[in-house]
């Protein structure tokens, strides 16, 4: 059970070249400034942008597979909950799309709502959710599709500052409970501190540091990480 | 600010006169129609068998034309919306083909259809059956003039919708077909509804292409607008009654589209 991904993608003058490995139960956080290529890494792993290289999920080469067959759960920065479906239908979408009959898919979805502690939201529309609720629904939707790898792109960026800490702790708990292969993209050290086991720093399309959280804070390898750590300590 | 509003108020009287004239030109004919309508004998006129026949034929053919437009037009709208990735020339040709029926005089469309599907037409000469002057010809003429309305409305809606929802659906394991059926089309449902209504009204009012390509046979090709035109020479009261009927249908569509964004037509 592991992920091994060598990703090479060129977009205009931007050149992305990274190698990532991850293990289940150890959340890998991709940290970097805006435009470093973090989201492109996730998109390449999910197969939603073209890239070269080899991506092995649990030993299965997925580089030539369509997105739908990669079994990669994706929590988008703005969640992208389907506006025409209820919360329950959003979560049941994955199982349904994979051929599960409607009643069974709805039961699965209801189970995930229970697990995430939001069963009362089942009949709401996405527009009737708070940011934190929408994030949990997005997580439930991704997990209900039975992914072998979970990708979260800036999962807290769309939230109000007041609720961010609570939602982050909640998210950390759910990721621990899920225990599968997980990659989180962020530019915030708060996210790193509560979500990460391993950190890869990405700057300008290249890995500039690979460390555990403790190592990262103790000995930043680049001016970018140094500034980030200094600012974080002041808080 | 003050200067702008001062200038505007200075311009206002000069604008009001032509604007009022324009409004009168648009509105007064309809007022005349309503005022002069033979309200007392209306039920009588509208229950005549030839009226009912034309009414049934019109609503029947316009409904079929709308269905055909949906089945063929939605795929065309999707192709058109996605053609942004193509090179310029084929994209422009495609767009021009869709737009031409909107600006072409319908009678020209009728002649063109005759030349294509008539007994000696480009394709018609090989067909074992005759299309012109049949009810199918009515439907074909209506599709020709009305489908572009649907295509453009749906295309605008598809363009305006966020394609990342489709990406999200794919990450959940949805095949392209499932994405289309359960995400793309439901998201543009308001555009499809608006486009269908516009398409239906245009088909219902179709005259020029229909009379050219399908003629005016009562019960077979004589739709409401054609019956109205013919009745005007025989029995003006009946023509007015039929006109009221067509106007009521148009107003009903206008009301149901009220405040709804029709992207393809406004963009």
Order of helices and strands of chain A: EEEHEEEHHHEHEHEEHH
What's the helical proportion of residues of chain B? Answer: over 70%
Q: Report the CATH architecture of chain A.
A: 3-Layer(aba) Sandwich
Q: Structural class of the secondary elements of chain B?
A: mainly alpha
Identify the CATH homologous superfamily of chain B.
Answer: MetI-like
Tally of individual helices of chain B: 13
Helix content of chain A: 25-40%
What is the rounded distance between the termini of chain B? 29 Å
Explain what this protein looks like in three dimensions.
The complex is a heterodimer of chains A (235) and B (267). Chain A has helices at residues 38-46, 87-97, 102-115, 131-144, 161-178, 189-195, 213-218, 223-234, and strands at 3-11, 14-22, 28-31, 52-57, 60-61, 72-75, 149-153, 181-186, 198-203, 206-212. Chain A has one domain (3-83, 148-234): P-loop containing nucleotide triphosphate hydrolases (Rossmann fold). Chain A is globular. In chain A, strands 6-7-8-3-9-10 form a 6-stranded mixed beta sheet, sandwiched between helices. In chain A, helix 3 (102-115) packs across helix 4. Chain A is α/β, with parallel strands linked by helices. Chain A is built from 8 helices and 10 strands. The model of chain A has no long low-confidence stretch (mean pLDDT 93). Chain B is mainly alpha-helical. Chain B has one domain (42-266): MetI-like (MetI-like fold). Helices cover 78% and strands 0% of the residues of chain B. Chain B has 13 helices and no strands. Chain B has helices at residues 2-36, 42-46, 49-82, 88-103, 106-117, 135-160, 164-171, 176-187, 189-205, 208-213, 224-234, 236-257, 263-266. In chain B, helix 4 (88-103) packs across helix 6 and helix 7 (164-171) runs antiparallel to helix 8. The model of chain B is unreliable at 261-267 (pLDDT under 50).
